[in-house]
Write a sequence for this structure.
């Protein structure tokens, strides 16, 4: 009797392995899989038809490309070098990178700026606040 049970168990395992190996892979959710492969007929389950699309299964899926965003770079503004100014202080004052100021003004040595020199400051920096006009003294 034990020998018959052993033969049936082995045959059942081989039959299950053959059924699983002969099934065509169907892309889709795992939730649609049945714990007993012989209970489902290919194409008859709702899960198999839910994953179907209008595209052939071999066709690549396309993801829509978002429209490019246009970034407008603000125009640079001018700063006149004052006595005691250093390029690093000017860059910090306007919250810009010193290298950007140097590149914009073709400066190779940051220590060589002169009083009265007009420097272009990148437009992304903090714009200078206009100073109020002094009223004449009486």
């Amino acid at each position: 009797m034990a020998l018959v049970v052993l033969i049936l168990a082995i045959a059942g395992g081989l039959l299950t392995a053959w059924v699983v190996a002969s099934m065509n892979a169907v892309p889709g959710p795992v939730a649609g899989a049945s714990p007993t492969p012989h209970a489902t007929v290919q194409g008859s389950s709702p899960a198999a038809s839910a994953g179907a699309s209008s595209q052939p299964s071999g066709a690549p899926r396309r993801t829509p490309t978002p429209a490019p965003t246009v970034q407008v770079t603000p125009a640079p503004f001018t700063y006149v070098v004052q006595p005691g100014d250093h390029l690093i202080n000017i860059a910090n004052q306007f919250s810009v990178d010193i290298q950007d100021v140097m590149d914009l003004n073709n400066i190779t040595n940051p220590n060589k700026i002169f009083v009265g020199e007009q420097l272009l400051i990148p437009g992304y920096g903090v714009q200078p606040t206009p100073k109020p006009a002094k009223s004449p003294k009486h």
